[in-house]
Amino acid sequence: MIASPDRTPLPREFFDRPILEVAPDLLGSILVRTTQDGPIALRLTEVEAYDGQNDPGSHAYRGRTPRNDVMFGPPGHVYVYFTYGMWFCMNLVCGPEGRASAVLLRAGEIVEGAELARTRRHSARNDKELAKGPARLATALDVDRALNGTDACTSGDTPLRILTGTTVPGDQVRNGPRTGVAGEGGVHPWRYWVADDPTVSPYRAHVPRRRRS
Which CDD domains does the UniProt entry name for this protein (predicted)? Predict the structure, then answer.
């Protein structure tokens, strides 16, 4: 019998830790997105850690910019970025304020509000695919840059909240190379996922994009 998830907001102290501790501990947490049409709740099943200026794969590797400013803290806030000219992806900021690190939310299971998520993910063949991948996750939850900087550790009226959920046992947590990351940043085994969960996205190595002639 699976225990009911804990709906207590994760405290800021949870995120004010080293990134490689926070990332696997986020698995099983519940992300709640409150929209005008109602709430959507998602159980995190796959995440990816990025360690700021120590990590060639991180947006903050070369320092602070207007785009990555939220990554520098405070912890527990949402960092949203736009990629490939068409998709949004969301992260949760970790570590002490002033030191950039964040966890990319790669995939999850919609546990409430699936009917709302379906209206945004028409191409999903079934509910397991609604948030199977970081861009799909953001699309299903109606996340864009307007939510960049949102505090996810509050219990009040906020568009995004992160709740305790249900802890994933250590023997069910897997890790491996990050998906689609090039160069030195691609070798870190900092992608974490719940073993055998059908909502986890498939691993794909980085493929250089060809310029149009």
Answer: AAG (cd00540)
Give the residue-averaged pLDDT of 82-87: 86
- CB neighbour list of residue 95: distance below 8 Å, 6 or more residues apart: 15, 16, 17, 18, 19, 22, 52, 73, 75, 101
CA distance 14 to 97: 13
Asked if pLDDT for residue 209 goes beyond 60, the answer is no
**Cβ–Cβ < 8 Å for 92, 76:** yes
154 phi/psi in degrees, rounded to 5 = -95, 160
Q: Are the C-beta atoms of residues 104 and 63 closer than 8 Å to each other? A: no
Which residues are CB-neighbours of 122 under 8 A, at least 6 positions away?
none
pLDDT tens per residue across span 159-192 = 999 999 999 999 999 999 988 787 777 789 999 9
What's the pLDDT at 213?
47
Residue 84 three-state SS: coil
In this prediction the pTM is 0.91
The alpha helices in the chain, defined as continuous H runs, are: 12-15, 19-25, 114-120, 134-140
